[in-house]
Design goal:
Length: 150
């Protein structure tokens, strides 16, 4: 049996791959322009502006509450990660959601890594990722506070 390749399929696949790479590159540029960086810490200003618009006068109070929630959820994750996988997943999932809602992209991404590791039963990876959360929480608070001061 002779295998032949359709040139159009190969060409289209290559073009699609190139397109995806360019799209990823453009998204990274978008984050660079729209985001605020602290090292690799990214905050999405559009998400913050959206929340500020939605919450109005309650934005600062809600943000302060959100900061407390970041700390509380991380603390509860740390207390449950070794002995209650279901609770640990629930806490880190909530942390991920809260972070994403307020544009804390790097924090949300790290929380997602913890959540996926726990869901996959990989406690060692989850512990490595979870160890980075408090630092990211502190950086997130600093970066959002800088943004608020603009």
């Amino acid at each position: 049996m002779k295998l032949t390749m359709d040139f159009n399929l190969v060409f289209n696949t290559s073009m699609f791959t190139l397109y995806l790479r360019l799209l990823c590159f453009a998204f990274r540029i978008h984050l660079t322009i729209k985001g605020i960086f602290m090292g690799d810490q990214v905050i999405d200003e559009d998400a913050l502006l959206g929340m500020k618009s939605l919450l109005g006068e309650q934005f600062n109070d809600t943000l302060d509450f959100c900061y407390c929630e970041f700390d509380r959820l991380n603390q509860e994750l740390a207390q449950s990660i070794h002995n209650d996988n279901e609770s640990a997943i629930r806490h880190v999932h909530s942390l991920k959601s809260n972070a994403a809602q307020f544009g804390a992209l790097t924090l949300a991404a790290m929380a997602k890594k913890v959540e996926h590791s726990l869901n996959d039963g990989n406690l060692n990876d989850a512990l490595v990722y979870a160890a980075q959360l408090q630092s990211l929480i502190d950086q997130t608070k600093d970066k959002i506070n800088l943004w608020k001061g603009k």
